[in-house]
Amino acid sequence: MTLLGQDGLRLVVLALTFVPGCAAAQNSDLSLAQQSSVSARTLPGVTPQGIPVGGFRLVPALGTMIGYDDNVYNRNAPILSEGHVRFSPSLALRSSWSRHSLRLTMDGEARRYFDLKTENSNQFSTNLVGRYDLARDVRLNVSGGFAHRIEERGSATDVFIGPRPTRYNQTSAGLGVALTPGRMLFRLDGSATKFSYLDSRAADGSVVDLGGRDFETASLTARGGYEVRPGIYLFASGSVNRARYPRPQAIDRASDGYTAGGGLQFDLGDVVGGEVTVTYLKQRFVSSLFRDVGGLGYSTKLYWNPTTLLSLELVAMRTLQRAPLQDVSALDQDIVRLTADYEVLRRMVITGAVEHLRTNFRGIGRSENRLVSSLSGRYNLTRFIDLTASVSFRNQSSAIATRNFDASEIRVGAVAKY
User: Fold this and answer.
1) What is the DSSP string of 250-267?
2) 122, 110 contact by CB (below 8 A)
3) pTM for the complete prediction?
4) Torsion of CA 281, 285, 291, 297, to 10 degrees
5) Please, what is the Cα angle at 173 between 33 and 31, to 5 degrees?
6) Which of 126, 309, 383, 384 is 20 to 30 A from 359, alpha carbon to alpha carbon?
């Protein structure tokens, strides 16, 4: 079980790289059902096509929004309501080759609050993903990225040590090979991720060294499968991982682990697709103060398009995240998320989502439950401008009184694209 960061709740139990069984999807990491979903498909005359640059296409965008949050800190106390604006530029450079592919994406966010200036933040990331087709049934995948992020207030990794959000840098790299001879499927993927935390400041202005939270992890995952019917694979998978804190303090939270299991992967045209995996996992910690983590690991991703106007997505998984406290070995998390996209009009899409996250703080016997629900809409005003609006509600229960909270946020904005 690989210990990864909380960003996007990346999969820990296994590698969820989808290798479609249908020929039409061989050059995509998305199943046909995903490609046909309301959120993924492109509409002629509505979606900007970008700028041709040799064998690439450049797609720039700039998002702006204004929002109001009635509990900025996501805490029981203090409760502060505040308005803010966000500017979100992005740039995507995608190859248009008949073979191989290369994609570079860059995005950023500048968040500015009206009165609570200490919550102002800047975030950005850049990612490179490439595929080299060695042969018709042999593919080499490479990836790499760098990001500067903050830990969102009230999240499991946020320890609220100072008046400003905690900042960190994340560096990642991956290399893998996929073979699909006949009805067989073989994959071997390696990845490495590093988190480096920047110094913070306490309420009295003194510098707080967060180097003890620096974290490094590496993993190797193998998968073998067989296409029992067109678009349906049965597979077995296994992985090993290594997790280290390069600047340990009182307790060394380093660990090593593995998973072994299998599941079902299916791509049944543009209506249904997904994957279900069950594994046995084991994570052993160097320090005798921490108990090993073992037992059932699982991951489910299902996509269903009951009509051309409605798309549903269900995600459920167990993950292990890096620990924010010295006496916590890891964050053991279970997440379930349901998302629905409905195309009300040709130029308007409504999205509803509900997510439940349970976090166990391994080592101190503490748990938290968070429920988040949201409703958002996007209206394509012109070929180059989208109008957006959203409302969300958050609720968390915890053994720590100040971490019990209810909160809501409303946003309106626009996105300019070319």
Assistant:
1) SS---EEEEEEEEEEEEE
2) yes
3) 0.88
4) -20
5) 5
6) 126
